[in-house]
């Protein structure tokens, strides 16, 4: 069993750290929120006064932070950066969804101290984090992937090696950009059917057995009442927040610009999600984009 430091215990990091402790690892946790720390410590982890104290002697450091600027600051900030306190040979696993450029910058800086690094963003949401069934998209060398895999297995079900440093982040933004486009397309198709007198359950059943079938239609239907146990049938509560989808689509557009790629559907989805968030829907599930196409 390993000695693990875990930084960032929010909606995702909290349950991920708890699953590592449940698997028998020695997990020392830190977050700026004392409540978040107390919750994870009550489930079997330990804590210390600072992130620096947690990483000393750790074989693995895992972070689950909001955005690139937090990851950059936690590892590389002058004086307080963990880079000066993590031991050589340790593997840093950053599971935050951030821009690939920051992942590569952190990986390069850590390598100067013989510290290994993988970017390992996740898919599966809070439900997957709690159940330990997340998918991890890992960027790093073959050796770094092999070092990360047994630890990630305690928090997830599908562990993919996407490629070199940053490749995990690229895979994540490609996936979420496609997911947003499918959700928008499914929503407008269902609204078109509704506006022309079709029962959305009947239409969903037809399309899910036809060539329009996709996960947002038959696994996460955005029309209230079509499926049980999805956010659409619970006033769009829970699930994956519009604000987070808007953030991921911003990352997708940065990635698209940097590589001069054509992503017109992603660009449109980003604008629609930004508009939807600005209309007060930021904390709702991303399937609530369905409401944008309501006929008044
Ligand atoms: P969150 O806001 O719930 O948690 C982030 C945590 O980081 C907070 O507890 C905050 O106090 C802590 N933190 C911030 N700065 C810190 C610092 N300097 N030191 C220590 N702790 C610090 O966010 P989340 O929903 O857990 O998401 C984390 C990451 O995972 C994000 O990048 C997000 O895009 C990604 N993600 C989220 C979901 C989801 O459904 N929530 C799904 C997939 C990926």
UniProtKB/TrEMBL annotation:
Sequence ranges assigned to domain 3-hydroxyisobutyrate dehydrogenase-like NAD-binding in this UniProt record: 166-292
Keyword NAD: yes
Gene Ontology molecular function: 3-hydroxyisobutyrate dehydrogenase activity
Keywords on record: Branched-chain amino acid catabolism, NAD, Oxidoreductase
Top-level taxon of the source organism: Bacteria
6-phosphogluconate dehydrogenase NADP-binding domain residues: 3-163
Reaction it catalyzes: 3-hydroxy-2-methylpropanoate + NAD(+) = 2-methyl-3-oxopropanoate + NADH + H(+)
A Pfam cross-reference name: NAD_binding_11
Pathway(s) annotated for this protein in UniProt: Amino-acid degradation; L-valine degradation
EC main group: oxidoreductase
This enzyme's EC code(s): 1.1.1.31
Family: Belongs to the HIBADH-related family.
Protein name (Swiss-Prot/TrEMBL): 3-hydroxyisobutyrate dehydrogenase
Protein species of origin: Colwellia marinimaniae
Gene that specifies this protein: ivdF
């Amino acid at each position: 069993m390993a000695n693990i430091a875990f930084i960032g215990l929010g909606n995702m990091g909290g349950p991920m750290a708890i699953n590592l402790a449940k698997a028998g690892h020695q997990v020392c946790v830190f977050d700026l929120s004392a409540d978040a720390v107390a919750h994870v410590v009550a489930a079997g982890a330990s804590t210390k006064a600072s992130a620096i104290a947690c990483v000393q002697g750790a074989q693995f450091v895992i972070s689950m932070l909001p955005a690139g600027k937090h990851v950059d600051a936690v590892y590389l900030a002058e004086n307080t950066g963990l880079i000066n306190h993590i031991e050589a040979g340790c593997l840093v696993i950053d599971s935050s969804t951030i821009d690939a450029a920051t992942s590569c910058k952190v990986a390069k800086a850590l390598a100067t101290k013989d510290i290994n690094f993988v970017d390992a963003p996740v898919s599966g949401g809070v439900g997957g984090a709690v159940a330990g069934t997340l998918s991890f998209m890992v960027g790093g060398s073959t050796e770094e992937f092999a070092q990360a895999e047994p630890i990630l297995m305690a928090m997830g079900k599908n562990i993919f090696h996407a490629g070199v440093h940053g490749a995990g982040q690229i895979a994540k933004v490609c996936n979420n950009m496609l997911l947003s486009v499918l959700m928008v397309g499914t929503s407008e198709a269902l609204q078109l059917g509704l506006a022309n007198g079709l029962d959305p359950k009947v239409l969903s059943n037809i399309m899910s057995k036809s060539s329009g079938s996709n996960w947002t239609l038959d696994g996460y239907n955005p029309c209230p009442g079509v499926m049980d146990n999805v956010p659409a049938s619970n006033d769009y509560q829970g699930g994956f927040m519009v604000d987070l989808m808007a953030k991921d689509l911003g990352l997708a557009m940065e990635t698209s610009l940097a590589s001069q790629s054509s992503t017109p559907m992603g660009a449109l989805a980003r604008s629609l999600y930004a508009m939807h968030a600005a209309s007060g829907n930021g904390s709702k599930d991303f399937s609530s984009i369905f409401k944008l196409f309501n006929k008044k």
